[in-house]
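Table S2 (continued). Query chain:
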Amino acid sequence: MCGICGIYSFSLPFSSPPEKELRAMNQSLHHRGPDDEGYYLDDQVALAMKRLSIIDLKTGHQPLSNETQTVWVIFNGEIYNYREIRNSLIKKGHNFQTRSDTEVLVHLYEEMGVDFVEALNGMFALALWDKARKLFLLVRDRLGIKPLHYAFHKRHLYFASEIKAILQSDFPREIDINALHQYFAFEYIPAPRTIFKNLFKLLPGHRLVSHNEEW
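Corresponding output:
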């Protein structure tokens, strides 16, 4: 179990780097990954992760990038067919620096674009930032085994494995009355709603894509 979180400014660059906010979000996920943590910030994206090491314990540090540091990814989960994908990509000329399944995601995206997720067999939630193309992507596995939440606030997209990480920001904690009614009726809140207004669960098998400020 790992934890991912981050902030994406989809219109204007950050007025100042949200490092303090990002660290607070990430620390709230410490229980999900005590082995390692990592951060990436630029003028538009802030990514963080807490890692429980399963594959490639020494070199699987995240966020992880391609060779030119133009594509970045954070990833919670496991890709069962990553070895087959890796071997196929090596034959096509891709060079790998680690043996982690996370690095496969970066190179597979370079090869296939946003449709790379269709080739994945596994349980996962991930965020990917293509700095060169100004493309941001959130993805959740088909069965929804790995959680992923998101919220829009002040022209920013906040996302995290758990709601409480998003609440470390200044996102308003306003109860969604319709979600509350659903909870009392069904004893749970059906996705994509959560108990908070404008804070959602990404549905299983879905992706959220922003390209050049368009969704």
